[in-house]
Amino acid sequence: MSRTLHLNAFLMGVGHHEAAWRHPRTDPRRIADVRHFQELARIAERGTLDSVFLADGLAVGPAVRHNIQAVFEPLTLLAALATATEHIGLIATASTTYNEPYNLARKFASLDHLSGGRAGWNIVTSAQPREAWNFNLDEHPAHADRYRRAAEFVDVAIKLWDSWEDDALVLDPAAGIFADTDRVHEVAHAGETFTVRGPLNTPRPPQGRPLLVQAGSSADGIAFAARYAEAVFTAQQTLADGQAFYAELKRATAAAGRDPDLVTVLPGIAPVIGGTEAEAHALAAELEALIVPEHALAQLSGMTGIDLSGYPLDGPLPDLPEAHTVQAHQSRYQLVVELARRERLTLRQLIGRLGGGRGHRVVAGTPEQIADQIELWFTQGAADGFNVMPPLLPSGLTDFVDQVVPLLRARGLFRHEYTGRTLREHYGLPRPASSYAPSALVPA
User: Fold this and answer.
1) What is d(CA 420, CA 174) in angstroms, rounded to the nearest whole number?
2) Regarding predicted confidence, which is higher, 443 or 387?
3) Helix/strand/coil (H, E, C) string of the chain?
4) Sign of dihedral through CA atoms 311, 317, 319, 325?
5) Could you report how far apart the first and last alpha carbons of the chain are, in Å?
6) How far apart are CA 417 and CA 45, in angstroms?
7) Which of 208, 272, 356, 377 is the most exposed place for a label (fewest CB within 10 A)?
């Protein structure tokens, strides 16, 4: 069976470029307008994209003076997008470090019901130490500790989604029976971090459980993805790096006893689209000229976990510790350091390169050139699809849907219409059986 390309639209404010809000093609006042995000979701759905995605953080960023911050909590916003769309999947980031399994399982189950089976959870462990200060902690938990908590967190959430069997709702007014209590189960989880009795007070979601997405390419991240993830958001700068990550993740997934073909790898791509290559590069230059160096350096400091404010902008990136020793986002840290070293970039050049995608690959060119890059990575073992990050919104998403998607369709890589109803169906994934289904209870 031929492979099908998968495309997710990553929605961020008025664009992924950090200077997008200053560009004349955007209106920064729209970041607090739900109609803006509903419009974006409808544009993506018009392009038959698999899903839209909202990232999240749990603290005000270090450079709020110069950059837009996310306004809406993503699950709340996705509920509003569910009412404005019919087909497209709805993925939200939620942290396992600063949430509890019961509340989060209930929220995602609710979104899955409200949307008719279109919910997805991007599982993160949180990378910014300042988030700890909002949750009764003086410092961020260690990287390995966050992943141990995340594994148990997801195990509990799955148990809670399964706590109602698919046929537990009886809804018999004549007999006065709402639910078959023999099919509603306490999960009675008692683990290292969590003690949760259950059951969930929301019936089993239409998809069985939301699509499980993971973002993180460190050793811990790959191990976690191999065990749980059904889609993976990742960042690589070169085709060779993309191929290496793709092969390692698929190998680790097989070693974990799962089918690697049921894990979708989605590198980020920030397409700067122009009618000609010169027009695309001119737009990229316009955006780079609007970067506020003070803000960009603070962003880079947050990304590396190292205060870089005292270093000259026109000097090199200073010597930094090995990735495994830092408590920041380790895989992104490694990517940034390697990019700076490989291309011998000054700090000023580095923040310019990172402005469009924060480490994700920026591609400036014509629609044909963007489509060529997508096809190359897809056919050469570096991706199953892409996490599309337009530099400006809504114009960049409109250009991608109206100019790049038709080329991908003409090449036989992408769908012309939705063939499924749920997010799992868009990604070609089966609906997982409940752990209480008869087949799951048969001894091995």
Assistant:
1) 35
2) 387
3) CCCCCEEEEECCCCCCCCCHHHCCCCCHHHHHCHHHHHHHHHHHHHCCCCEEEECCCCCCCCCCCCCCCCCCCHHHHHHHHHHHCCCCEEEEEEECCCCCHHHHHHHHHHHHHHHCCCEEEEEECCCCHHHHHHCCCCCCCCHHHHHHHHHHHHHHHHHHHCCECCCCEEEECCCCEEECHHHECCCCEECCCCEECCCCCCCCCCCCCCEEEEECCCHHHHHHHHHHCCEEEECCCCHHHHHHHHHHHHHHHHHCCCCHHHCEEEEEEEEEECCCHHHHHHHHHHHHHCCCHHHHHHHHHHHHCCCCCCCCCCCECCCCCCHHHCCCCHHHHHHHHHHHHHHCCEHHHHHHHHCCCCCCEEEEECHHHHHHHHHHHHHCCCCCEEEECCCCCCHHHHHHHHHHHHHHHHCCCCCCCCCCCCHHHHCCCCCCCCCCCHHHHCCC
4) positive
5) 30
6) 10
7) 208
pTM above 0.70, yes or no: yes
Q: pLDDT tens digits for 116-134? A: 999 999 999 997 888 999 9
Phi then psi for residue 59, to 5 deg, are -160, 155
Q: Higher-confidence residue: 309 or 176?
A: 176
What domains are there in the chain, each with its CATH number? Answer: 6-276+360-438 (3.20.20.30), 292-354 (no CATH)
Residue 308 in this model has a pLDDT that exceeds 90: no
Q: Is the dihedral of CA 251, 256, 262, 268 positive or negative?
A: negative
Question: Tokens 């700067």, residue?
Answer: 272
Q: Could you give the angle at the alpha carbon of 371 between the alpha carbons of 427 and 225, nearest 5°?
A: 35
Residue 316 has pLDDT above 90, yes or no: no
Residue that the structure tokens 């290292």 belong to: 192
Of 370, 206, 182, the C-alpha closest to 272 is: 370
Structure-derived torsion over alpha carbons of residues 412, 413, 415, 419, reported in degrees to the nearest 10? 100
Query: Which tokens sit at 162?
Result: 């399964």
- The band of 399, judged by pLDDT with boundaries at 50, 70 and 90, is very high
Strand partners, 95: 124
Q: Which two tokens stand for residue 45?
A: 């759905």
Q: Name the average pLDDT for the chain.
A: 91
